[in-house]
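Input chain follows. Return structure tokens only.
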Amino acid sequence: MKKILGVILVILIGVGGFYSYQYWNKTYNAKTAYAIAPAVPKKTETVDMDGKKVVEDGQQLYSYDYNIQFVREDGSKVTIPVEISNKDPKPLTPGTYLKAKVSQTRATEGPNPVSSASAVPANVCRILQSK
């Protein structure tokens, strides 16, 4: 009986570990990717998940919400939602190259402007310019 419970426990730990790794890999395992900043979206009031306005120090926060298509160094593409939020947010400059660390579902770092197109890998630059 103890052996059966031990085997079941090992199987449950293995299955839990597998699904935990799958979630981490999809959500947080980020790779460097590049994009060209799209047109500036409409500036909106920032709201939380419940639809309530977000206020900081008595002031309303505002956001620019983007859906940016990034190209990874291996040539694969992924579209990630990016929100720039602050009391007075500065939008991304349209047409500039951006660099970020992105997973399959989110940007974990950035996007940050790149100084020039020469800082973007050649194969990625070709893909971005062909869009």
